[in-house]
Design goal:
Elements (H helix, E strand, L loop, with lengths): L2 H9 L3 E11 L9 E7 L22 E3 H9 L4 E5 L9 H9 L3 E6 L11 E4 L9 H6 L2 E6 L3 H10 L7 E6 L4 H14 L3 E3 L3 H5 L3
Helix pairs in contact: 2-3
The chain binds iron/sulfur cluster.
Length: about 210
């Protein structure tokens, strides 16, 4: 396959830079505790300094993989598929989600929302980042808003983002992992004073699973 042929398939979402895939327990947010198969797609240029998957950033490091193969494999493991990254919306998710839905699977996405929403999703976890704000359209569609709290200014940012989502969207504050000790007491106080928010923790890290 020539480079341009490969690029054409990537542009159509028929090839995706697959970083890793694994069956585990969803550790965060609304579906915490649910067994799910994770598909991690490489590529992200949002650039969060505290990102815990910096290895995902460069798409070129991850093999362009046929979407049909990703789907075939995922379907063997779970009825619940979580597409994450990197930033999966860097790519056209139409093919991947159409094929997953054709297998009758529940398809979730974890995204910063920084790029156009493509694909068909049963659950959208929107986690906005200051460096590249979400597109306007995704606020209406998000099922949960997961705000990462690294410092106090993140409470201000969280409120700003919460004012933009739809009324049914569930609101979570989640401490950035390296800042848990410092920020958990602040988050606890904040949620008690502002109970529209719930606390989310990265329980998979406490469980020592991926
Ligand atoms: S958006 Fe996600 S993957 Fe991208 S840099 Fe930020 S935390 Fe990392």
């Amino acid at each position: 396959m020539t480079r341009s042929e490969r690029q054409e398939l990537i542009d159509k979402g028929l090839l995706l830079p697959l970083m890793e895939e694994f069956y585990t327990i969803q550790g965060e947010g609304f579906h915490k505790g649910t067994a799910a198969y994770f598909i991690r797609i490489g590529g992200c240029d949002v650039g969060c300094h505290w990102c815990d998957v910096k290895e995902s950033w460069l798409a070129e490091l991850h093999p362009p993989t046929e979407t049909s193969k990703i789907v075939e494999n995922a379907a063997k493991f779970s009825n619940t598929i979580v597409v994450t990254g990197g930033e999966p919306l860097t790519w056209d998710m139409t093919q991947l989600t159409t094929q997953l839905k054709a297998k009758g699977l529940q398809v979730h996405i974890e995204t910063s929302g920084a790029y156009k929403l493509t694909g068909t999703w049963d659950w959208i976890c929107l986690s906005p980042k200051k460096l590249k704000l979400p597109t306007e359209e995704i606020y209406e569609l998000a099922n949960e808003l997961k705000m990462i709290v690294y410092n106090k200014d993140d409470f201000r940012f969280a409120e700003e983002q919460a004012s933009k989502v739809n009324k049914d969207c569930i609101l979570y504050l989640q401490p950035e992992w390296s800042r848990c000790e410092k920020m958990i007491p602040e988050i606890v106080d904040y949620v008690m004073a502002n109970p529209k928010w719930k606390v989310s923790l990265q329980t998979h890290k406490y469980l020592n699973i991926p």
